[in-house]
Specification:
Blueprint (H helix, E strand, L loop, with lengths): L10 H25 L15 E6 L7 E5 L12 E6 L2 H4 L4 H24 L14 H9 L5 E2 L7 E2 L5 H7 L3 H8 L3 H10 L19 H8 L14 H52 L4 H21 L2
Parallel strand pairs: 1-3
Antiparallel strand pairs: 2-3, 4-5
Length: 315
């Protein structure tokens, strides 16, 4: 996932953002549905366990969404309502984080309008062209706090580019959740600073040519004096060569230790992220299915303990 300039961090950061994006979108969607009251009365009741939220990235597209109602058939019957959100990898390189978060919020509200219309029996797609919106959809979208524009020379091509002032007041505050998700954690920030600005290539990329800094370079950046020993004329060339080889061997062992330590930190960060995502998903399911709580807790705890054991065994 390509993040806005100034927020590009490390592979651990990108993995965490991607892993948490689906649960974050689900959380924001539920908050937005609650904020839509009383503009879309009853919308919150449609966002329970009968609604599935899915996020994906398409590098050729900007932020966009799609809605499929319960029973929609595309090869196989669908058992739940589905909202799919392209989180906009391409858009992230062309917008500020605030603009990206607002666009994603607008898309979420737009798809919730489709959900609302579907449950209220309001025709929201044209029968002759299911990709186009009806006038009834445009009316509900405006009621929900979206600006509705109509393409010139068209009776049906309605689109929603932004919020109205009322919509921005109701929903804008939820964008901070996305901005907080983009911020690197202290561990990710420390790692990026250690490896320099080029965070897209690290020692964990199989074909990466980026090398960890030498031990003498690490000590120089820390403010300590360099350990490099310069042979003196008091020693013969044979002793000087042996001294140089020993220094190189010490530096090599130190660099291996640094790489190993950073690898363990990266794997620990991944395990923390995965555990947090699993806990969030379990909490959502427990609210809707309390009887499943013991089983979900066992599964999450089993993963967490297993990840800790794997880390203790080493790479």
């Amino acid at each position: 996932m390509r993040l806005p300039e100034g927020l590009e961090a490390s592979p651990a950061h990108r993995h965490r953002v991607e892993a948490q994006m689906q649960q974050t979108c689900r959380t924001v969607l539920e908050l937005v549905a609650a904020s839509a009251e009383p503009l879309l009365s009853g919308l919150k009741s449609y966002t329970g366990d009968t609604l599935w939220v899915e996020t994906y990235e398409d590098s050729e597209s900007y932020i966009q969404g799609s809605f499929q109602a319960h029973g929609y058939k595309s090869g196989t019957p669908q058992q739940r309502d589905l909202i799919r959100l392209n989180i906009g990898q391409r858009a992230l390189g062309k917008k500020t984080p605030e603009e990206w978060a607002r666009s994603l919020l607008v898309t979420i509200v737009h798809e919730l309008v489709h959900l609302y219309c579907s449950h209220r029996g309001i025709e929201h797609y044209l029968r002759e062209n299911p990709r186009e919106h009806t006038k009834q959809f445009a009316q509900v979208a405006g009621q929900a706090g979206l600006k509705v524009h109509q393409l010139p020379l068209s009776d049906a091509k309605y689109y929603t580019p932004d919020f109205t002032s009322e919509g921005a007041r109701r929903y804008g505050k939820h964008g901070q959740i996305f901005l907080d998700l983009l911020k690197p954690t202290p561990l990710e920030t420390h790692r990026t600073a250690r490896l320099g600005n080029d965070s897209t290539s690290t020692v964990f990329t199989p074909n990466s040519r980026k090398k960890e800094p030498a031990m003498s370079e690490i000590i120089r950046h820390s403010g300590a004096s360099s350990p490099t020993v310069q042979p003196t004329p008091l020693f013969g060339s044979g002793i000087a060569r042996q001294t140089k080889r020993e220094i190189e061997a010490i530096n090599a062992r130190a660099e291996i230790a640094v790489v190993s330590e950073q690898a363990h930190a990266f794997l620990a960060s991944v395990a923390i992220t995965n555990t947090a995502v699993l806990v969030g998903q379990a909490e959502t399911l427990i609210r809707n299915h309390p009887a499943a709580a013991p089983y979900l807790e066992t599964l999450v705890a089993g993963y967490a303990f297993g990840a800790a054991q794997r880390l203790n065994r080493g790479l």
